Amino acid sequence: MSGPLMFEVLKLISLGWNLDDGKKNKNDLLSHESELLIRELPSLTEYFSYVYYFGAISIGPIIYFKPYKDFITKKMFDGEVPVEGESLTNKDGIIEGLWCLLQSLFYLIAFLKLSSIYNFDLYSGSLLDSRSIFYRFWVLYILGFTYRTRYYGAFKFSEGHNIIAGFGFNGYNYDGSKRW
């Protein structure tokens, strides 16, 4: 949990500086400060898609909010980018993104419920010694699944926010429907 929080704190700090620069006169700022300034507070969806954008997590917190927003809104491409004769809008993936967020909620609730029943402290030591080998394998399987659900929940949460932000388009299926 400390890794994602580290990225979130650093991005929150840089976002705060850019918002503070947005309150100042442009003539009082350096050139790179005026390029990154933000005048309006981003929405919660924009903020979470920025914080959990996979590319920024994999390369570090060097992406500022304004270039990120210019990328997902396609402003950096001077307008909309046509994809096979059609242009995408940010609202195209709302249903798919909400479905990912619902899955995230399911996995996090499953983790909370299952981890109260199946945790390593309850099933370590002599408690399993008196049980059959099949019961031991079952408990190990459930323990593994229980602890993986928190990662599934975090991944689906970040995937849902990126899709809602318009960033998760992945081409077309064979029937012509959009793939996210």
UniProtKB/TrEMBL annotation:
Membrane-related topology note: Multi-pass membrane protein
Keywords from the UniProt entry: Acyltransferase, Membrane, Transferase, Transmembrane, Transmembrane helix
Localization terms from the record: Membrane
Transmembrane segments: 47-65, 98-120, 132-149
Segment forming the signal sequence: none
Keyword Transmembrane helix attributed: yes
InterPro entries from the UniProt entry: LPLAT_7/PORCN-like (IPR049941), MBOAT_fam (IPR004299)
One Pfam family it belongs to: MBOAT
Protein name: Oysgedart
Organism: Anaeramoeba flamelloides
Lineage: Eukaryota, Metamonada, Anaeramoebidae, Anaeramoeba
